[in-house]
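step 3/5: co-fold with xanthosine-5'-monophosphate
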Amino acid sequence: MSRDKIIVIDFGGQYNQLVARRVRECNVYCEIYSYKTSLDKIREMNPRGIILTGGPDSCYTEGAARCERELFNLGIPVLGLCYGAQLMMHVLGGHVCKAPVREYGRIEVTIDPSAPLFANVSEHTICWMSHNDYIEKTAPDFQIIAHTNDCPAAAMQCVERNLYAIQFHPEVLHTVEGTKILWNFVRGICGCAGDWRMDAFVANSVEAIRQKVGKGKVLCALSGGVDSSVAAVMLAKAVGDQLTCVFVDHGLLRKREGDEVEEVFGPSGPYDLNFVRVNAQERFYEKLKGIEEPEQKRKIIGEEFIRVFEEEAKKIGTVDFLVQGTIYPDVVESGLGGESSVIKSHHNVGGLPDYVDFKEIIEPLRDLFKDEVRRAGLELGIPEKLVYRQPFPGPGLGIRIVGEVTAEKVHMVQEADAIYREEMAKAGLDKSVGQYFAALTNMRSVGVMGDERTYDYAVALRAVNTVDFMTAEAAELPWEVLGRVASRIVNEVEHVNRVLYDCTGKPPGTIEFE
Ligand code: XMP
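step 4/5: write tokens
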């Protein structure tokens, strides 16, 4: 596959991954690199275009994130966004300073429809602005192609050198015609063919894996989550029964989840691989006995997981490759890609490679964003139910049961959660709400059922809307849905006599209870 590539140079802004995702939505492959990446490396990658992102600095201050002047002389089209636009002007001889009026939010921009960047864009268009500095004077040879009431230079171009700069953020959805603008840059100005497509990616990856693995043996830890499932199916398609998938059922999965994973990957499923299910429920419950502290629970679950996996791996013997479901945001957030300072605070099951005897790691999803992983999954024929699965934490229900975990409590929360999910699906809310689940509080309270007094547990329902899972808002679920769920849970789940709805956002709450 020809890989036209766009490079996104990251100056530490909050929307940087979004820029890359939007470019990929134009069917163009792109990667994120830190602004510290050398010119030589950039030249070597031979990109069709370069995008400079926003960032928190003021380009005229000492120590601000910079790029070299030479970057603009490589003969490669460059598009600067927000800080990237200011930096381009600053470096090329314009003047950037604190703006007399700070612009923030949706703002009407008047554009020059004859500019290549704005082909097919309306003359007056709503864009997302967020800047304190502004371009007071453009660099020589640049022509202004957009303005707002408060920002005389909202976009500029030097067509002869293929340099473009825009003060607003086309990558943010509030910029109504943002995708069109990015399309004009990557497909129009840079001339990318637009052949970054999931069907081609999947076919090529399968072939490349086949070549790489040869006759080797491959081991994959399957969690049932989207990433590891897609990675496993890709491997299964490529090397079939040279692959062994180990699925550790720690007894902290949602209702029927273990069986669902087995139906897809097990011997009666469509793939010819060696599927090993380890039913380790009792081991985990035993280890968790009497433990109430959340971090300690997480640690125990993580360690026990590794131990079980290690025992299984030993039975298989030396393998040549270990599969990991790493995806592109993991790569960026671990500091290998861009400039993001976000350190991933959640790892599913860390540390596996240290414990297993293997030669090399295969990470087939390393270049993909989550939505692309899902599309690859559909392309591979994985059932939608698996592909559109909600995020589920590695420690599973262990952190949705406040306090001590017991088999009985796991059963209660599984049943309550299954009812909640069923009713959400019936109400058509299952795809529109970001994440939702039932948790079991550690609170018992008095109720009355029939004519009997009860003293039982309270289930808490959680539903949040979120873009990035770093912040979230409690979803406003219809009262009738909540009512139906509450009444079914109390009637159908033994030892639950009360249902609460969690209205807390994140922050100050977290999405999970522990
Ligand atoms: P919190 O509770 O931190 O959760 O607001 C944010 C998102 O991360 C998921 N989560 C985890 N995922 N391992 C994971 O793979 C974990 O230990 C873990 N803890 C929380 C959570 O479901 C939510 O989507």
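step 5/5: annotate
The CA atoms of residues 435 and 479 lie 18 Å apart.
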